[in-house]
What does this fold into?
Amino acid sequence: AIDLSAKKEPEIFNAIRFGSVLENVVYDEQTRAVDYSDRSITENTRCAYPIEYIPSAKVPCIGGHPKNIILLTCDAFGVLPPVSKLTPAQAMYHFISGYTAKIAGTEEGVTEPEATFSACFGQPFLVWHPVKYAQMLARKMREHNAHVWLVNTGWSGGAYGVGKRISLKHSRAIIDAIHSGELEKATYTNYGAFNLQIPQAVSKVPDRLLNPSDAWTGNPEEFSSTLAKLAQLFQANFKTYADKATPDIVAAGPQL
It folds into this structure.
């Protein structure tokens, strides 16, 4: 809930009323007004509220098989695109990798974002080998003709400390474009060492934001070295799972 405001997230802001639970926030004990910009306790402030407090919520919260699956990551290096369309093999690779960044305030001792990998985005809870879960995902994708997207809500224009966090407004526009079918019909271009397909345009999102090399504010050499560094982290992490992964899954990762 850090920096939450009625302007940024009106539905969530208005859902925080009697019946909601706030955690790690600072508030005025007399007026009970919350200061969402206060980071003195932690950056990781939270809120839970009844789903019916959201005007457009679907109640009960159940549906059929999804047509779009979104893998959410937070890239602290500023080199992953805000959105990429994944092939089944890439979906398996990135699902197995479970890449994101630990953000300041989410864990004790973490003062700035750092890269981390958690297989299937939930490694401590896995019973089987991650490749088995990835193959189950791919099977469901084929069975229900589902598209998979890698959505990055991390940094753009540079790494943490230089670039800026991708705005909620732009991330929401990307999600809307996925669900509306806009991105299914979009024109794509290939992105570098990660071999990702990135759209050339998304409604309500600046074109230069879609390609990290265009958004980068430093020199091209710095961008290339940062991209290579992240690719190497992916490769080093995936060695743990490569013994059970098929050649097409291994080939779906970054290639240097």
